[in-house]
Amino acid sequence: GGLGMLALRVGDLPSAADWYERAAVLYDSLGDGEGGMISRQNRAEVMAASGDLESARKAFTASLEEAEKFGFFEDMVIAHQHLARLAMRSADWKEAEHQLAAAERKARGRGMPGVAENLVYDRGVLALGVGRLDQAERLFGGFVATIAPEDRLVRHAARVRLAEVAARKGDLARAEREI
Length: 179
Known about the structure:
179 residues, mainly alpha, 11 helices, globular
């Protein structure tokens, strides 16, 4: 899986897909169902990165079903999160809201509040997408407050979203300060 991740990060999507497929086959041959499922989920990320959103949606749905079958609870949450992100890319806000609610329900229902907190940024993107600017601002502001100082790229991404909120509210000076 590590070579797939490296290939994805440098934009070599065909190699990333190939490495993730190889990893899935290897994990499956070793009887490691979760490793194989995660590799297939990573391959779905490659599909999404290449713009094949429908194939990615089908693959993430299959990984959700696989996670449910084997009781991999955190992987269920992650699959819902990926399905929500795909829905947001297609401006299907209702589906995105449904997927994020399912993810949060499963995380909290299993006593995984930290996993549920990982959904805050996505909930902010959703709020921004449907025009709930005050909610988006609260979510992104709260998210920024939890980011470790060394996570500068994550902090920057969240601040860009805060800048977008400010700009959409007409406060361009604040938007400029955020970024």
